[in-house]
Amino acid sequence: MRFRDIKIAEANKGSNVVRYNTELAMLTAFSGASNLQNIPDDALVNPENTKKEIKKVAKYFDQKKFDQWMAISNQYKEKILTHSGKLPQQYDWVGGSNKGPVADLVFKDHPASGISVKDASGITLANLTPKALGLEPIKGKDVFQTYADIEFKKFKIRVFNLLMDEAEASPGTLIHPRPSGKERSIMYDDNSKKFVVKHDGGVLNLDRSEVIRTSPKNATWQRVFGDWYQLNFQKYKDIMRPLVRTISKSFKEIMGKALSDSDVLKKLLQFEDKPYYYATPKKMYFVPSAKDAGDLELKAIDYDDPDGTSQKFKAKIGNVNSNDGAVIDIYIRFANGLFATNSTARVQSIKNPELIAWDLI
39 — phi, psi (to 5°)? Predict the structure, then answer.
């Protein structure tokens, strides 16, 4: 699936299989074809470019996933025809691009801009920067560190020492928290009395004081420490609690102020100038234009139980003339590795979207 502001840092084969087969099956079905090879040129806005993009992702083709979404797409094709009274004569596919409007399958000369596709029962809205939620990190610092500097540093140093203690207790033993991932590991060398840290950019040999001294600023070589803590979160979750207590209160207040504006909420909820359709395997919604969505307001925002190291907030959003509202989950999380990069924000799901003018068709 594709949404504005999403940047894929490490797209693995599994996610690409899902994405390309769902989107291309929909393109095939809506263009009136039975497979990727017989999509008619006159059904495409830019046939040469689209077919070039399809060839680029041919290695991700999965017949089962493609067939599944061909069946779903043909059903949704009839739903859109009934709902809008017409189907587009031409379509475009965004391919590997992540810029532009929400739709993955783009409609030409139609009241709706197209269809945004999500191959899951839940609804994921957007990946964001914390700044979009009113959280302003100091340049070069993580947003957690910006708002809870002392607690963040204590938490991080504690994690670093725990892993180094484990490595030092077994000299020469490689600790690789995520063996299915890249080579991010740590080992204590008894001869040099240093820790050998392998990371995406190479190898570092550091003693304990050097590790601690360089720890305040997140860096790619530190990801092994983050991976290890994620793996052992249940055992050591108490050491993160002081940090969580501090940021949960301040983040709630800051986000509450930032989300008090209707236009900000509409952007967060992916309303656009033109309406579009949102498709999951089981449901299809018509998402109205930002103008037709009416005035929205934040009804409430609360801190929820954290999901591992990700911090979760629930926000209730509804029309200004109603007490009801949809509920979204907002995560502040380390999408690209705890301690390796700074945290990001995500609107993970939305419950009862009909209460903010989404129309189930």
Answer: -70, 120
